[in-house]
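We were asked to recover a plausible sequence for a given structure. The inputs and outputs are reproduced exactly as logged, with field labels preserved.

PROBLEM: sequence recovery
POSITIONS: 422
GIVEN STRUCTURE:
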């Protein structure tokens, strides 16, 4: 691939992160998560519990099916078609949130859209991540992965900023506030944003080369290959241990993303508008961290970058459980978020470095998604249970720090040689 062509394809690939981040930040984390718990659900405690259950259901489904879809794609090809299908599922689910009215009659509609949209987003990322080994030279692997995550954070920031300025705060369209239309419109807005900025990937990024078997044969071959991989996985010490570690600390990250805005509003009394500003500020910090420490990934290695970031997340998380001053909360949370992006980007590049056979990259990223989701229901479930049991969100958030610390410890024995292969 020529240098100018590589720049174009990498930029198009990064724009998909830019596009999909709108769903993560607006639907899963800030606007609709907060709107559901405060306006749709019976009350904040019950709403937190229901939102946790819905994300847990989505996580279980993603964990069960993402490796299988990855294996099928490796044998049947058509990676872009699979990516398009699951992208469309997330887009349509986002658009349907227009009907999430501010009353308890909309609870199940809202939660159904959340489950389907989250499945679409996360399974699409399995196919999206599989393009990274093809696009990134070894010496730039960490940087390109970091640029992708950085693009996602920037895109998320801009999408959230538009939602805040145009719809929520100013209501430039003059929508009916009694029915929360200025908030519900954010669902269709995400659908449009996601669609527009994902188009360059489908047009400009070359498809992955693989066998093109008919779908029934691909399903059978994919299932058998996945089963063989799972059986031999315990003998692949480095990859197996990494997937276990990733399973644990990703659970902490997922819980933090889902309940970050809810925690800020419920524990520190941030208003709805302040939660949106909090989301923008925190994503700026996370984006800066992802881009800046992407160079560290290529310099000292993905493993060291992930461990360093997890240690910082754990240490900075402790004051957030104890503080009561809103200003102090903002300051510490800003520092904490500097290390969120590097964990994500370096985790993805570490997986690439550990994959020796690019022919099964989609399957392996399916297992990567599995490790990030197989216990994803535990984090939100524990958050909800601890919140209900102690009648405080601080108890729920304390569980997140345990996931970070244990995940970092399990990374220590993993061996990655200088060439990036396990």
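RECOVERED SEQUENCE:
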């Amino acid at each position: 691939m020529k240098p100018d062509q590589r720049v174009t394809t990498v930029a198009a690939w990064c724009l998909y992160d830019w596009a999909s981040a709108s769903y993560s930040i607006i639907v899963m984390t800030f606007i609709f998560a907060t709107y559901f718990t405060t306006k749709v659900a019976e009350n904040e405690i019950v709403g937190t519990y229901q939102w946790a259950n819905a994300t847990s259901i989505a996580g279980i489904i993603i964990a069960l099916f993402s490796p299988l879809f990855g294996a099928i794609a490796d044998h049947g090809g058509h990676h872009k078609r699979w990516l398009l299908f699951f992208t469309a599922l997330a887009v349509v689910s986002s658009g349907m949130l227009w009907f999430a009215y501010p009353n308890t009659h909309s609870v199940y509609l809202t939660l159904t859209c959340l489950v389907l949209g989250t499945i679409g987003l996360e399974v699409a990322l399995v196919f999206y991540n599989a393009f990274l080994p093809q696009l990134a030279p070894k010496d730039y692997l960490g940087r390109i992965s970091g640029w992708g995550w950085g693009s996602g954070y920037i895109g998320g920031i801009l999408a959230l900023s538009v939602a805040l300025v145009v719809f929520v705060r100013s209501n430039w369209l003059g929508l009916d506030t009694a029915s929360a239309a200025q908030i519900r419109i954010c669902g269709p807005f995400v659908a449009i944003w996601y669609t527009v900025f994902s188009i360059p990937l489908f047009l400009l990024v070359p498809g992955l080369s693989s066998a093109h078997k008919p779908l029934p044969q691909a399903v059978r071959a994919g299932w058998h290959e996945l089963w063989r991989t799972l059986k031999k996985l315990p003998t692949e010490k480095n990859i197996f241990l990494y997937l276990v570690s990733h399973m644990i600390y990703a659970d902490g990250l997922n819980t933090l993303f889902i309940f970050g805005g809810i925690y800020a509003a419920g524990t520190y009394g941030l208003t709805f508008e302040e939660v949106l500003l909090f989301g923008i500020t925190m994503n700026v910090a996370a984006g800066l961290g992802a881009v800046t420490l992407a160079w560290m990934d290529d310099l000292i290695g993905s493993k060291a970058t992930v461990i360093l970031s997890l240690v910082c997340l754990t240490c900075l998380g402790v004051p957030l459980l104890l503080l009561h001053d809103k200003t102090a909360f903002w300051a510490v949370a800003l520092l904490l978020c500097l290390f969120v992006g590097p964990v994500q980007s370096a985790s993805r590049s570490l997986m690439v470095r550990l994959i020796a056979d690019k022919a099964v990259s989609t399957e392996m990223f399916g297992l990567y998604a599995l490790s990030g989701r197989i216990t994803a229901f535990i984090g939100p479930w524990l958050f909800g249970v601890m919140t209900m049991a102690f009648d405080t969100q601080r108890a729920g958030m304390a569980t997140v720090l345990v996931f970070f610390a244990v995940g970092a410890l399990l990374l220590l024995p993993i061996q990655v040689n200088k060439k990036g292969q396990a």
